[in-house]
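This section describes the prediction task in plain terms. A model, or a person checking by hand, is given the sequence of a single protein chain and must write out its three-dimensional structure as a string of tokens. No templates, partner chains or ligands are provided. The sample shown here is typical of the held-out split.
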Amino acid sequence: FNEQDWTVRHELLFELSLELAECDFLCGRFDAAEQGIDALLRRAASTIEQVAIYRLKLALHVMKGENPQGVDSGLACLRLLGIDMPAQPSAEQVRAEYDLIWHNLGGRPFECILDLPLLSDPEKCAGIEMLDALISAANFVDPNLFCMLTYRIVNLSLRQGVTGASTFAYAIFGATLGLFHHRYAEGFRFCQVSCDLADKHEFTFYKARCRMALGNSTVATQPLGASI
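The expected answer:
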């Protein structure tokens, strides 16, 4: 494509080029995918486009086992969206984000999240999706960052509205309630609600992920047969 093509049909060429880079990634042509990503970053005309590229860039880092680089890329992208996230949050910072969840729930039952509105603001949606994408790399780098990302998505979703990524964050939060705080029954309930939310809005991509978390939390509260 020449410069005039990009000027006249930027949106179409961007989508095609992004899908080509994703195809290279999925087929294991990592060098070609990386070249495509670098070229797209120079072409990005909006924050939304930058986020789409960074999500693929992060996935490529994770696939290559470059998790620290993936975290760096994800945090850089979050800063473009005005989300400041520490690379190595302290236990106190994680606890503050955790406590904020209960403040935002305000004593309401967990099932209240089923009635939350869908988030429609494109940049806010992109922020939550980027936080979600970063969780996979953080899982291998820093447990505090892993929890901080999860809790931040839960808080943003409680305040602003839900996206597909919200459902998985709710599910992880439910799992951590048992794993880290020994609140197993509540964690099981939260995982159940995350699955119900994914079903309600047909967030197909996240249904299996939510059910995986539900299965893990079931082990502590139900007979083994139920978890299987």
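For orientation: The mean pLDDT is 92.
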